[in-house]
Predict the 3D structure of the following.
Amino acid sequence: MVELFMQYLLWPLVKIIVVVLFLVLMVMAMTYAERKVVAHIQVRLGPMRVGWHGILQPVADTVKLLFKEDIIPIKADLPVFILAPILVAIPAFLVFAVIPFGPAPFYIADINVGILFVLAISSFGILAILLGGWAANSKYPFMGGLRSCAQMISYELPMGLAVVSVLLVAQNLSLVSIVEWQQKSGWWLFALQPVAFVIYFICGVAETNRCPFDLPEAESELVGGFHTEYSGLRFAFFFMAEYINMVAISALTVVLFLGGWLRPFPNVAWLSFLDYVPPVVWFLLKTFFFLYLYLWIRGTFPRYRFDQLMAVGWKWFLPITLANCIVTAGVLLFFYYR
Amino acid sequence: MTLRQLLRKVFLIDFLEGFAITGPYTFKKVYTEQYPKVPAKVPPRFHGAPRLNVDPETGKTLCIACDLCAQACPIGLIEVQRERNAETKRWELKGYTYNAARCMFCNLCAEACPTNALELSQTFEYAVYDMKELYWDKAALEKGPTVVRFTK
């Protein structure tokens, strides 16, 4: 009885709390890092006043958001308006239920359809964004919601297809098994599926509404996009969800293509001194690299026009990923399973 | 689209070039100044608050009351009050006012000064609450403005 309690209740609960705390901390760190990194790319300083080099800026921002007046427009669809921020935050956290931070005890759950679960949950977040855009009963949020919906649906397809080619190689849907396959074969999957790797990450950037695909919240065109009418804590939820989604996409890219918690060249014997670094640290290092890449992209590229965005999604990524899938399947079929 | 452009696009060359430009910028020297916290550095030829120089040894003013500065000033904000000494037949300085509120820092007065008595210094932080406080007399000009630094 005590064992069952430990195994199914206490232990997962501890893990969940740790992961949630880690994510909230990551959100704060990311807001700070974003302002700092983009500032330095533009040869500015960024926040400098709150604490040493502005290190306490996220805390100040959080306090500000907590104490801001919560404005609800008169003509807003009240239940939906209240529901949307909650619905947008839940799937963002939920994705981390299946992401393996390290071997055996370092994940909350290892379900055999892990990657499908992730794709399903992240599509659910789109619905919440559309609801948020709709609920405010105002033009700009509605436009933002529409754009967001169109963009996310069109980028979900190549993203899914990029994942399919990974699944074809790894022969498994569980995220833990995908990493274990990479360990067994000695190849990180990005070496076997470079096209899928690049397209997956670009689609991930589009999926999280980040620059250069940030049309749904383009400040210069739409005021603020789907969250224009939100303020205070509700806005904070949208904000938090966006950053957690960034962490999720980075983590997934690492799991699917960069060998998750594995060290570089997992089967090369003379590199075994790298094993002294714990697997979780390897995982986090790789994830941080992709998070940095997000900021680097933001500091580098201008925003796409909407028709260009759609053209890239439908005319380039979709055919390329489809072709990639077919080629992968063909190669596997004719050379591997003969 | 030529083949070259297409290949550049497909292999993300343009993307990588963009990264190569912004990447090093991350580590370049930052231009932003932390002004009220750190005093601002002004270039060597900066024209700021006017100052009447005194002889460092005797402590007497270098001004010979020639009135050239007042004549040079395009705005006419300098007023030299002087009197001819009956014995030496020289002008003697009785009073000097400088309306720092209207000065445009053209430096013509300082250039006109034959003894380098009038000079535009590097100080620029002399904001006051009352404009009348910017009518500086001889004593104020010799002392220079008092800079008040912001503290929490």
Chain A has one domain: 7-335. The longest helix of chain A spans residues 2-41. Residues 140 and 222 of chain A are 5 Å apart (CA to CA). Chain A touches chain B at residues 37, 40-45, 48, 198, 296, 299-301 (CB under 8 Å).
